[in-house]
Amino acid sequence: MRKSKVYIALLHYPVYNKKMEVITTSITNLDIHDIARVSRTYEVDGFFLVHPLETQRGLAAQILDYWQRGYGAEYNPDRKEAFRIVRLASSLEEVLDMVAGEAGSRPKTVATDARIYPRTVAYEGLRQAIAEEPGAYVVLFGTGWGLAGELMEKADYVLKPIAAGSSYNHLSVRSAVAIIMDRLLGDR
Amino acid sequence: MRKSKVYIALLHYPVYNKKMEVITTSITNLDIHDIARVSRTYEVDGFFLVHPLETQRGLAAQILDYWQRGYGAEYNPDRKEAFRIVRLASSLEEVLDMVAGEAGSRPKTVATDARIYPRTVAYEGLRQAIAEEPGAYVVLFGTGWGLAGELMEKADYVLKPIAAGSSYNHLSVRSAVAIIMDRLLGDR
């Protein structure tokens, strides 16, 4: 049993578009499904869908409801179980407040990006801290073309890019979440 | 530089449905995108979309064409680069013949499943063989509820389930491909 609590936050703002302008993206149905299933598999303590717009959170709430209480829950009980982990928030601050209330202390934030930032940490060190020391971590993932620089700067830790040595590093956020959770929490 | 060639085959037949009946699934657009991007990131030698129906392969060909030669190629050159790795085949036999022609010898097949089969191999051993010994491997992934038992039995190797120790192991095939390629080919 690991000692730390681990949460995922999928941010739709502030993130970059192709031209490196800061934008707000829309919630993607398949991100919810794929990341909820990863969260349940690796026993993540909460998966926060973070969007500033109430209409977008409302749409996500309808999808969650269908798989938790609607026909989807009856058709696919495994999905119902995964969706139980999904929560909605309007901002990262709100996520951190919720987690602080649950975990008893302010969580550390862990930013992820395909770009190389000066202060990055390796997976193994963080994996060991999560396993052996009590605490709480929120791992931040950006939709669109990645988390805005201000979030990277404010984060407590910045993880090394997944494929730092490859000439190509354009994974979907769904694939990035799967790989990073496996590196931090998977048993090999 | 690794010594072995590595290919991915995404099979739409023969796979199980929820009731463990053998069925044919439809090609899913997002599987192509996510798995092509993983393939390019980890320098996979080929990603085969395998479907017995010509109409389904025709649909996939149209999607590939859009991102390789249509507006998609201009809009997103990174996607164009990833899609170059994608190939179509009607059966696993056809895939193995194509790979044998390219690699100079019959490839070994590596089956993956969330279920535990009696003869499974660990990731580390296969990772080392791929890195250090010349050869060719085709890693098989099933859509729907997983590869039919006959494919598992005929495979040269069967990989351990990703989350063998978890009480829940229902990842999307997109997440499974990402995690397994990272375990076999990723640099840590």
Structure notes:
Two copies of one chain form a homodimer. Chain A is of the alpha/beta class and about 190 residues long. Chain A contains eight helices and eight strands. A six-stranded parallel β-sheet of chain A has the order 5-4-1-7-6-8, with helices on both faces. Chain A has a two-stranded antiparallel sheet with strand order 2-3. Chains A and B meet through helix 1, helix 4 and helix 8 of A and helix 1, helix 4 and helix 8 of B.
Helical proportion of chain A, percent range:
40-55%
Report the β-strand fraction of chain A as a percent range.
15-25%
Briefly note the structural class of the backbone of chain A: alpha/beta
**Inertia-based shape of chain A:** globular
Overall pLDDT metric of chain A: 95
Order of strands, main sheet of chain A, comes to: 5-4-1-7-6-8
Give the strand tally of chain A: 8
Number of helices of chain A: 8
Rg of chain A, nearest Å: 16 Å
Largest inter-chain interface?
A: A-B, 38 and 38 residues
Oligomer: homodimer
Separation of the first and last Cα atoms of chain A: 15 Å
Order of helices and strands of chain A: EEEHEHHHEHEHEHEH
Largest sheet of chain A: 6 strands, parallel
**Runs of chain A with pLDDT <50, length 5+?**
none
